[in-house]
Amino acid sequence: MIGEILNTAFITGLIGAAMRMATPIIFATLGEIINERAGILNLGIEGIMLMGAMTGFLVSITTGLLWIGVLAAALVGMILSLLMAFLTVYLGLSQHVSGLGITLFSTGLAMFIYRIHFGSPLVPPIVEPFTQVTIPLLSKIPVIGPSLFDQYALTYIAVLLIPIISIILYKTHIGLKIRTVGENPLAADNVGVNVYLTRTLCLVTGGALIGIGGSFLTLDHQNMFLIDVIGGRGWVSIAMVIFGNWDPLKGALGAFIFGFLDGLQLRLQGLGIKVPFDIFLMIPYLMTIIALVGVSRKAAVPACLLKPYRREEKGV
Amino acid sequence: MIGFKIVKRKPLPGWARLVIPVAAIIVTLVLSAIPILIAGGNLWKSYYFLFYGALGTRYNLLETFVKASPLIFTGLGVAFAFRAKFWNIGAEGQLLAGALTATWVGINAAGAPKILLLPVFIACGFIAGGIWAAIPATLKTKLKVDDVVSTLLLNYVMIHIMGALLFGPLQQPGSSWPRSSEIVEAAKYPMLLVRSRFHLGIPLAFFAVAIIWFINDKVVFGYQSRAVGVNIKAAHFGGINTTSVILRTAIISGGLAGVAGVGELCAIQYRLIMDISPGYGYSGIVIAMLGNLHPLGVLFSSFFFSVIIVGAQTMSRMTGVPYYIAEVIQGMALMVMLVFLLLTEYKIMVIRK
Asked: What is the ipTM of this complex?
């Protein structure tokens, strides 16, 4: 049995699966990092992902164009994030409750629209999903070649976004603005940064990524839309942001670990090995709770996360 | 250019606190017209069947009570925690913890008399839910772990614990589904009205409302819990042991959710299944907010939600508007209520620049 697990094909397959499973979580984690760096915890993430998954699926099936579906998912993520921005940035309402409201609303809405469009067919409709893009030469490297360089386009994009967002956050003027708005909005306002606008734009940008993350699940990973298609991956992403200390690279690493565990339990099951897969799937949540211990003492958490900014109360 | 700004207003009179939830419900129902129209439903027919389906016949009315029972418990639990600013998003997991423990006892309790078994059952559910809430409360007070995220994540830990047990030791022998054996006859809640599912859990929920109301208003602990919520530092300097108060608040909050789980097990499903709760714990959050964290408010908003959930089934059957409208309305209700609550403290002024 050990031989079955330790052979090259298994390892290649496992790393490949881990990358695929990690993709939606990388997107959502990066999106959420942008939100939280600007000071907004977006608990609407789970619902926005589901709306992204549904919209991507519906638009792809009607237009026959998968990339239009992905764009539509990004757009719907932006719209829902605008609603979040209205509630939390402009009205300064509780981010927790607003976010949960968005999730509840979007979850209902996704199923609602799906049913209006497709009815309740016995066999769920399917879409012709994306195919893997094989990168010449690189994919010929033994073991890691076929697993890392024979992936979906969105997976490559997710991986490329990790350094891009890191650079934007840490090395550019825009990133400095974003971080200041999250750390000390009053100071940002005093030097002429529009706190409301910056937070809104961060929410919208993050929302687009979160929506795309959702669409990966219906356009690559699976070819149909099911009610539990997200299955808590939004919450996992929230967890990965904390686990990764609000850093894109570490957050993505967390997402990869999650993808790895998810892929491992699936593959072990596939080999007919009886594993208590629920125990595997519990690990990321427990890891995060452990990571949460002491987070408040670290400098990484944006100082003004969860704090509404009301310009009128500046002097108070 | 027209902009707006938000300024603090003078405290509203007491009657406004009653008017606001009602106004929020009315606005939500008006907004619900949009998805109904999108689905191509006839507006009046849809609203008619929404209310007829929930209140129109004896059976439907009693069914509305049946659905309200778990919602009252989770809503009450969440409200009690929120009042102390313990942000318990984990009612769903606490409900499952209660149901899980009750299942374990319920399968193995052959031969015990009902009169003895039921209190034991309810106590087990309460304790299990309470313990599951005590974990994040302790993490919050001792290690400063954010309670929103920890309670939320613990829901998923509990779902996976349940999955592991339902595919493992608790699985019904011979079944390939993740479900337990049926609980023993003596563990089932008695049905109180013929030709309905009106069960013991319903008067129990009303009783819980009364108890929490009593604790809130008449017991020193209720006052301390509130004081911690209003200003934890002041409470601390006032001589309140805030750590202990938060812990006890969490246990009561989780315990109530646990009892909701016992009710669903012992009166509705009779066996543990993965989807024993269609999100009652999450609905509890909305209900607590809509009810302004007051027990009586929770009671009323639970019924509002129950009407929507039960009525949407009939509406869906008669007009073709998908059943998921119920969830859309719940989400909208929460956001509308949030905006209305803001209006109690602030006013929005339109300014011309």
From this structure: 0.86
